[in-house]
User: Which sequence fits this backbone?
């Protein structure tokens, strides 16, 4: 068994192994699924379950093999060491400030796109804002901003790296701005009632904080802090859900009865009996928690339904998962043959996005989705190996780790700005190498 270069650097960073992330995600999902208060209302083919297992196995195989070759350890490389920091200190800080400027530019372009070109107004409620965003086309500025403001993720990683060597190297205002830029997508999504990205951002921040700030002496305090923050994010998601439903003259109870998932899963009878004994406000809040639970576990049923009813002749050959290629092509004046997600959804048996990691892959590659799942597993291992030796690859590794972490629920390549974040991480690698002129050694 080979060992990655080990040891502590900075304040005790630890780059989590993809095998550990995969196992945590699988165990957590299985727990939620087994304890789920929902049951299927349709029958699905054995082939759909078999194909799902094939895709999970294909995703896991390279990760498991990588675990055998390289054991889980705390990696260290010259680029993380104090000597490298002392030599490149000024350039690293300058790189951070450049990223912050680019993130600010992206956020500014985003605001112009929303308020000037789309007509967004602060007086709009969530439903009005959601309909505006869904039914209006963004401008070129909006497309450019989508590639710029995700650089806030790289800024957050770099800021933690700097503070692991010198906590005074970054002022309070700079740290505050980094957090504002980082959580801006979540604030924007919350303004029109979208909730999932809040959980993604908190999970991403948790990983970065764990890698660069974790110490065994403060482990209990760190885990308590993140348990509170994670619980707060879930609480906020429930509140946003209830506010969105209230604007639509509905509530969480009615969502469990007539929501978009009820034709695939239904609440078991004991839940209604349990909720009926609660005061109205508490009942509605708890029903909101069950509503979020439904979002987390119903994706596998969506996948089964997609597999059983999708016409394989409509396979998109990558055009659904990688639709931003066509969007970027239109900005630079080229016409792409990709249809885009809106057009593809007209070909689907159900229009929905929570179909696990493998749903969009099946839409694109049908049975070839398993091959792409294998490639994703191999890529995340490859980027972990590089990130252990080159800190510039940590943001890219984060994006692929998120794909693995949420594989039982949603495809993070097609959702929550996933591909935009990956492109931004690649941009960070290029800019970082220009500033620091480092190579993997």
Assistant:
């Amino acid at each position: 068994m080979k060992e990655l270069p080990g040891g502590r650097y900075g304040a005790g960073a630890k780059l989590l192994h993809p095998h550990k992330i995969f196992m945590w995600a699988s165990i957590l999902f299985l727990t939620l699924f087994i304890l789920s208060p929902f049951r299927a209302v349709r029958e699905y083919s054995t082939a759909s379950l078999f194909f799902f297992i094939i895709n999970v196995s294909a995703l896991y195989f390279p990760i498991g093999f990588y675990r055998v070759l390289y054991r889980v350890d705390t990696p260290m490389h010259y680029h993380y060491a104090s000597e490298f920091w002392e030599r490149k200190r000024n350039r690293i800080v300058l790189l951070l400030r450049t990223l912050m400027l680019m993130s600010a530019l992206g956020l500014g372009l985003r605001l112009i796109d929303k308020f000037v070109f789309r007509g967004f107004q602060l007086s709009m409620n969530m439903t009005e804002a959601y309909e505006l965003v869904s039914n209006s086309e963004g401008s070129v500025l909006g497309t450019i901003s989508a590639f710029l403001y995700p650089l806030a993720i790289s800024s957050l990683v770099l800021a933690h790296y700097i503070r692991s060597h010198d906590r005074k190297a970054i002022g309070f205002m700079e740290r505050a701005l980094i957090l504002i830029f980082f959580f801006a997508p979540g604030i924007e999504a919350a303004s029109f009632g979208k909730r999932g990205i809040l959980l993604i951002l908190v999970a991403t921040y948790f990983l970065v904080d764990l890698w660069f700030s974790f110490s065994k002496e403060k482990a209990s305090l760190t885990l308590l802090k993140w348990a509170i923050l994670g619980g707060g994010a879930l609480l906020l998601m429930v509140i946003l859900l209830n506010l969105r439903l209230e604007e639509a003259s509905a509530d969480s109870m009615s969502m469990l009865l007539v929501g978009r998932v009820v034709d695939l899963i239904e609440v078991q009878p004991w839940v209604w009996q349990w909720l009926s004994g609660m005061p109205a406000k508490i009942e509605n809040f708890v029903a909101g928690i069950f509503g979020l639970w439904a979002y987390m576990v119903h994706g596998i049923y969506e996948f089964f339904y997609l597999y059983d009813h999708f016409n394989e002749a409509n396979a998109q050959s990558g055009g659904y998962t990688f639709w931003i290629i066509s969007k970027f092509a239109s900005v630079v004046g080229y016409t792409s043959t990709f249809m885009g997600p809106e057009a593809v959804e007209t070909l689907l048996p159900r229009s929905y996005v929570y179909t696990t990691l493998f749903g969009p892959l099946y839409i694109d590659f049908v049975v070839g989705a398993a091959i792409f799942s294998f490639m994703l597993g191999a890529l995340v291992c490859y980027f972990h190996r590089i990130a252990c030796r080159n800190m510039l690859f940590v943001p890219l590794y984060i994006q692929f780790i998120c794909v693995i972490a949420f594989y039982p629920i949603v495809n993070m390549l097609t959702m929550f700005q996933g591909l935009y974040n990956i492109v931004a991480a690649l941009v960070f690698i290029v800019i970082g190498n220009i500033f620091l002129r480092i190579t993997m050694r």
Observations:
- The chain has a mean pLDDT of 79.
- The chain is about 65% helix and 0% strand.
- The chain has one domain: 2-247+316-436.
- The radius of gyration is 22 Å.
